[in-house]
Design goal:
Blueprint: H1 2-27, E1 48-51, H2 61-65, E2 71-74, E3 79-83, H3 92-96, E4 102-105, E5 117-121
This protein binds iron/sulfur cluster (2 copies).
Residues 49, 66-68, 70-71, 82, 87-93 line the site of one iron/sulfur cluster (SF4).
Length: 131
């Protein structure tokens, strides 16, 4: 009885494996020729960090908590920057920002063969344009 059951299980496994094998043979590649073709992005895809620089108070919390050191905050210059390829999309900076001005965008950083540092500077000049 046990032997018959084991034999049936073996046949079922072969059947399942053959099904998968045939499906993959006729499906074609699951990968796409990135960046020429791109896969659909989902709402919660972790693409890249964006900042609403006008709301930033340059407290440096994101800079201190980033596990890879990708963010640099320069309070004196009202500047915030991120080394894109150093970021691992953990979203920790988004969680710790007291002003909620960081967001995880679902679009990836474009491919690059070098470092990519994006810098944002807050315009603090309050002088009237007519002066
Ligand atoms: S934690 Fe938020 S408010 Fe503070 S420096 Fe970073 S982005 Fe700006
Ligand atoms: S998502 Fe993570 S790795 Fe990327 S900048 Fe924020 S804290 Fe750093």
């Amino acid at each position: 009885m046990i032997l018959a059951y084991a034999g049936m299980e073996k046949h079922m496994s072969i059947l399942r494996m053959s099904k998968t094998l045939f499906k993959n043979l006729f499906h074609g590649p699951y990968t796409v020729l990135y960046p020429i073709k791109q896969k659909e992005k989902y709402v919660h895809t972790r693409g890249k960090i964006t900042i609403d620089i006008d709301d930033c108070i340059f407290c440096g919390m994101c800079d201190r908590r980033c596990p890879t050191g990708a963010i640099k905050v320069e309070k004196g210059n009202s500047a915030w920057s991120i080394e894109r390829l150093q970021c691992i999309q953990c979203s920790y900076c988004v969680e710790v920002c007291p002003k909620k001005c960081l967001k995880m965008d679902n679009q990836y950083t474009s491919p690059s063969n070098g470092k990519v540092r994006d810098e944002f500077i807050k315009c603090t000049n309050t002088q009237s344009l007519n002066e």
